[in-house]
Amino acid sequence: MKLKQLGDTGVQIPELALGTWQYQGGAEPLRAGIELGASFIDTAELYGTETVVGQAIRGIRDRIFLASKVSPRHFRRQDVIKAAECSLKQLNTDYLDLYQLHWPNYTVPIGETMSAMERLVETGKIRFIGVSNFTAAELRRAQSTLSKTRIVSNQVRYSLVDRTPEEGLLQYCGDHQVSLLAFSPLATGFDRMRICDPDDVLGQVAAAVGKTRAQVALSWCVSRPGVVAIFKADKTEHVQENCAASGWELSPEHIQLLETRIRHSRRNRAERFLRRLARRASQYTGRNLGSATAMDHAHNNNQDQER
Question: Which helix (H) or strand (E) holds 237?
Fold first, then answer.
């Protein structure tokens, strides 16, 4: 599988990674992906899949680039450290290659959270710091609080039919050597892809290059410099299909066809502001009630937009 550099670290990672949000496939499909070169596995404490990932990597940890995420309700300094230790226990490993802030938390100073993340790097419990669902401004603010390390990645939704990161974030990440980790690169199933592609342009391109629709959609995603695509597949045959999206490239003509003929959305600045405002309100409500559960409930209700 083709490799890409993670941020400015010099570390090479697969351009296709195994995602585990709402994953129900057990260890076998993950193992199949690893054997095909997709040795980057992404999970999170909120996913409830760290245990199965731990089973999948047992005995082969040294071959795996392992990533997890800390829930926003654990962004206080000591909570970040405890959450990381809990994830390590669930995954049955001594360290994480990448530890990510799952969403911004507007109720906790970002400097406090990032100080804890740097401490985890210093103690060897994590190698690199990443974020998820951060805007360019939030990413810049988080980076400004770090004194010894850099943020190497930002995990956001990106696909042929949702190209919101192209509204500035993709450029910012490229300019600052931050890898963009694209989740839902197949638009959380192909139903939305079909709606946005009534002429089946994806099928036409797939037929022309001798690949499947999923392989073409994934290949388009990773054709962007610095972009790694994280897909979720519960069945071994789907993992095998998706992994075969690497190792070849779409022609510029096919890329242009996909981009101009398939309808796509880009949330504008006002829409992004309103989404952030709603999340801020839900977090403050959860905090004022003194209920971590309330905050988690608010986050989980938004997972159809942002994992």
Answer: helix 236-243
